[in-house]
Amino acid sequence: MAVIINKDTRVVVQGITGSQGQFHAGQMLAFGTQVVGGVNFDKAGQEIHGVPVYATVHEAVAKGGANASIMFVPAPGAKDAAYEAINAGIKVLVLIPEHVPTQETMEIMQYAKQYGCRVIGPNTFGLISPGEKAKMGIMPNHIYRPGPVGVVARSGTLSYEIAFTLTNAGLGQTTVIGMGGDRVIGTNFVDALELFNADPATEAIVMVGEIGGIQEEMAAEYIKANVKKPVVAYLAGKAAPAGKRMGHAGAIIEGNRGTYQSKVEALTGAGVKVAALPWEVAELVGKALK
Amino acid sequence: MKLYEYLAKRMMAEHGVPTGGGILCETPEQAEEAARKIGPCAIKAQVLVGGRGKAGGIKLANTPEEAKVRASEILGMNLKGFTVDKVLVDPQIKIEKEFYVSITLDGLVKLPLIMASAFGGVEIESVAHENIVFSHVDITTGLLPYQTREIARKIGLTGDLAKQFGKVLIGMYNAFRKYDAELVEINPLALTENGTKLVAADGRFNVEDDALFRHPEFPTVEEGTELEQKVKKIGLAFVQLDGDIAVMANGAGMAMGTLDVLSAYGGRPANFLDAGGGSGVEPTAQAFDALLGTKPKGIFVNIFGGITRCDLVAEAIIQVKKSKGIDVPLVVRMVGTNDVRGREMLAENGIEAYTEMGEAARAAVKAAYGKEA
């Protein structure tokens, strides 16, 4: 079992002919994901890694049976491409690009809501369900294994580090979800917690958070009221100064909002075990599952 | 990116918001000329710092001659680290009451948020929550007049003033959308002319950096230290800190985590640097070279290769070592894509590389300070 994507997920790659799209389509296929095609209006009819390139997302849905899309489209074209996917009936949309203007992200989210489409990102590494061989993202294939841990993270590389220590400790994953580092994102901690909580195969949940915003604090409230499964968290940015954007658009302490301390207190208060160092996450999960 | 008050007001005036008709001046003579046109005036330094009034950046003048003298006092003055090279000459107005109104991006609700209050003129953070009206705009339908009427009533405006307020709000919203703002604020929105007219007495307008590619019309304001600007030009996220161990990692979260781990072992990080996902050899080498230029006590490189290839990071480091030499202790931790090759390349060039993050961080602290912290 897994959440959001599984073996029945049929993926179309928007922007498959670009270098990133091409490379990652290959990696997703190698992982065993059903990539049913790609989209490029001017290169329709070609094949990439043996899958067809369609002119529009509508065609990929009609002819290829796509029900999910991963977008490798540069930020200026992201809104148009996202609207196209949503309008074509895509139900899971993964927005890889960084630097999408926030007002356009807001428009995408509002439009997706009207069509019942789940959005992951933008500025995300995507998501992966190892036991289902389903991957929609840019993460390295070899660091994941099937298992009982659900992971949701704001950042990519740091979550790779943590997923890899889990795997090395014999703790595989149901699904690993990258929320994205932007201020406005489609699927957040609370959404992911809700899904993992309801997923019978997920026995423990790992949150990889960071300074900025109040997503972790809201997650803590949700956990307190709803989650009985063990939750372990690691939060980045303890050493970060206030008022400075630490790479991600959302990773900034504004006034006394979004501090490391406030997040640790909220999560600890909700019964979450907060790891002080990244590699301690696997130990804490191991203990919780004993 | 923040815009100067005069530009903020220009963007709003373009969309029908009354802003008082101030004149931008760069010399005392221009200020004198401006005062001749508009009468008694306020001369306001155009700088992007708060509290400029208290710092002497706003002065009143009743005659053109006085305006010239006051402008000459303000122009060239240093306000909290910024030299004033422009002043806005605004008409003096008699204010009956001050309102507050702004539009921002609410990341949680994922919609633009209007905030309005009858208790303006002070920072909104100091206004009690129950005295602020919060109202989200459905970004796919836009701001309609009915919503402005609802807000107007809640802050005590009726009749013609409610209509004026609606015009202000819709003008602000249209400017907010057109210029991809993350903040449009009028504080105070002043009630003048014996309570018959609303005027924007001050304005703030922040354009989102990610949308600047669509707005070449705005002059760029360089923010950050010289080093921050230099690394930003390479295209990487960089923040200068006050420590003495330079840090390079790939990915924003990983870079933050690296600072935390280094600090946990007693290291003092000199910077945050996200060397990016899949950057080539050249930008990585440039960034590494920039770090070296800060004369740190040590350098710690922490790479978890995904899209980033460890062998290319190794190549970048070796390139800098060969061309310029690395005269400070360097500790590298490298795992992930092509890590074995990367570590071999480094070893061939006399640089030791670790696989465990904690062990590497501890070694970096020891190498930099000559002892365990």
Structure commentary:
The complex is a heterodimer of chains A (290) and B (373). Chain A is an alpha/beta fold and 290 residues long. Chain A has helices spanning 19-31, 57-64, 78-87, 102-115, 156-168, 189-198, 215-226, 260-269, 280-288; strands spanning 10-14, 34-39, 47-48, 51-54, 68-71, 92-95, 118-120, 126-129, 134-137, 146-153, 173-178, 204-210, 231-236, 273-275. Chain A has a seven-stranded mixed sheet, with helices on both faces. The two termini of chain A are 21 Å apart. In chain A, helix 4 links the parallel strand 6 (92-95) and strand 7 (118-120). In chain A, helix 6 runs parallel beside helix 7 and helix 7 (215-226) runs parallel beside helix 8. Chain B is an alpha+beta fold and 373 residues long. The model of chain B has no long low-confidence stretch (mean pLDDT 92). Chain B has eleven helices and 19 strands. The radius of gyration of chain B is 27 Å and the shape is elongated. The interface between A and B is large, with 58 and 51 residues.
List the uncertain runs of chain B: none
Radius of gyration of chain B: 27 Å
**Which residue ranges of chain A are poorly predicted, with pLDDT under 50 across at least 5 consecutive positions?**
none
- Which percent band covers the strand fraction of chain A? 15-25%
How far apart are the termini of chain A? 21 Å
Biggest protein-protein contact in the assembly: A-B, 58 and 51 residues
Give the strand tally of chain A: 14
Indicate the multimeric state.
Answer: heterodimer
Proportion in helices of chain A: 25-40%
Mean pLDDT of chain B: 92
